[in-house]
Amino acid sequence: MSSPTPLISPSLLSADFARLGEEVRAIEAAGADWLHFDVMDGRFVPNITVGPLVLAAIRPLTALPLDVHLMIEPADPHLEAFRKAGADWITVHPESGPHLNRTLKRIRELGAKAGVAFDPSTPPEAVEWMMDEVDLLLVMSINPGFGGQSFMTSQLRKIERLRGMIEASGRDIVLEVDGGVTPETARLCLSAGATALVAGTAVFRGGPSAYAGNIAALRNAG
Ligand code: DX5
Ligand code: ZN
After folding, report:
1. Ligand 1: residues within 6 Å at CB?
2. Pick from 203, 218, 167: nearest CA to 16
3. What is the mean pLDDT of residues 89-102?
4. CA distance linking residue 30 with residue 119, whole number of Å
5. Which of the following is catalytic: 38, 41, 67, 135?
6. From the alpha carbon of 45, which atom of ligand 1 is closest?
7. Cα 201 to middle of ligand 1, angstroms
8. What is the chain's percent helix, strand, coil content, to nearest 5?
9. What is the DSSP-derived secondary structure letter of residue 38?
10. pLDDT interval class at 4 (50, 70, 90)
11. Any catalytic annotation for residue 178?
12. Overall pTM surpassing 0.85 (yes/no)
């Protein structure tokens, strides 16, 4: 049986930052469903990327939902700035602390959808008491911090477990996978129950003329 069609959220981390506006437009024209925006602080993860200023700069260029993945600690003092800059979905790591429930409530109060990201070592139970507060669960199939890493198949069982928890909750929660997603690994994620796929390398390889084909290959992987 084939899986339902997944949402494809290209990670701008793999875009050409000298031409970011053109890249955003090209990715939308190529059929992306969302845009994934990776924020890193050099503290929670060993890399530094971009912040609300860059998010605000791309917001007027696209109608796509902006899927903002915060790899920063603490996240709470910056939630409002990211929402004001145009974030539609804001996802945090429980380890960025200190109070996940408070953070998720704050994201929703600001009018965004709230997500929780799982490091490879974060157990599914991290959200067991939070299923009413989340709109999205993001399984990381790499250690956060860099694009271009290899998919960790150990995380497929976590996707299955979270799929079961979502079904039991009766709520409509997006189950997204991030890290090393290719058409081959996408197929495994979709059969494990994922409904959204983040991909940087696999979308941006080959340049703008390849984007539509790369996105279609992921969407049809199941
Ligand atoms: C890494 C980021 C990912 C990254 C994925 O911490 O969260 O979104 O861009 O890149 P690929 O698809 O190349 O693994
Ligand atoms: Zn990400």
Report:
1. 11, 13-14, 36, 38, 69, 142, 144-149, 178-181, 198-202
2. 203
3. 97
4. 30
5. 38
6. 6
7. 8
8. 45, 20, 40
9. E
10. confident
11. yes
12. yes
pLDDT the model gives residue 160? 98
Average pLDDT, integer, range 215-222: 97
Which of 14, 45, 182 gets mutated to test ligand 1 (max ligand atoms within 8 A of its CB)?
Answer: 14
Averaged pLDDT for residues 211-221: 98
- 117 three-class SS: strand
Q: Is 132 a catalytic residue?
A: no
Q: d(Cα 97, Cα 214) in Å, to the nearest integer?
A: 36
Tokens representing 82? 């990211």
Number of C-beta neighbours around residue 169 at 10 A: 13
Q: Averaged over 120-147, what is the pLDDT? A: 98
Residue 2: pLDDT over 90: no
Quick check: helix, strand or coil at residue 164?
Answer: helix
Ordered domains of the chain (ranges, CATH): 7-219 (3.20.20.70)
Query: How far apart (Å, rounded) are the C-alpha atoms in residues 162 and 156?
Result: 10
Q: What are phi and psi of 124, to 5 degrees?
A: -55, -30
Nearest ligand for residue 45 CA: 1
